[in-house]
């Protein structure tokens, strides 16, 4: 495990001042980087810890914000903000590009080696960056089997990995089929992992506030999904340099 440094970063997007979490690996050299998107509730310590874990692996990692520094623990408030956002690809892209600009301008980031990993709404943002033709090395998502506007998936220029719970009522089989059909028709190098018995947001530890129906933590699959994300990055965005002591 390497020594990392972290800091908050503020940047404008969606008419708000976003507050992201940047994690940097040891050293001073440029590194491959990961743009990390949160579930619809917004940026929390769960995503901050994931960014830190990626930095320990040698990546520059930015966990980006969706709601101007707010965490939306009220399900009705979260849906009221996220549903219009998910229905507006251009708005998602603007949020993604704003965060991506922050990550690219970080001196430790190799701007030619960036991947997007996201959960729920944050995963949908990553997919929209791909559909917008952004040069990424990989896109990894959990609970984000969103489909885009006709033909735009052909702009995706990197492998796409997606994970979903088999019992997720928010991403049911029909949604899975639509997503995989879109990826296949576009000629994308795609993979879908279905985690047996898991609900929506199965990767997210339990929270102390109400959640929408169909959400539930599954500890074994949460660990497996994280390993799958790390494996995706190792394949498509390897850290090849000697990290040192």
Automatic annotation (TrEMBL):
Keywords: Hydrolase. This is Dienelactone hydrolase. One of its GO terms (molecular function) is hydrolase activity. The keyword Hydrolase applies. The keyword Cell cycle does not apply. Belongs to the AB hydrolase superfamily. InterPro entries: AB_hydrolase_fold, Dienelactn_hydro, FrsA_esterase. It comes from the Bacteria. Residues 20-235 form the Dienelactone hydrolase domain.
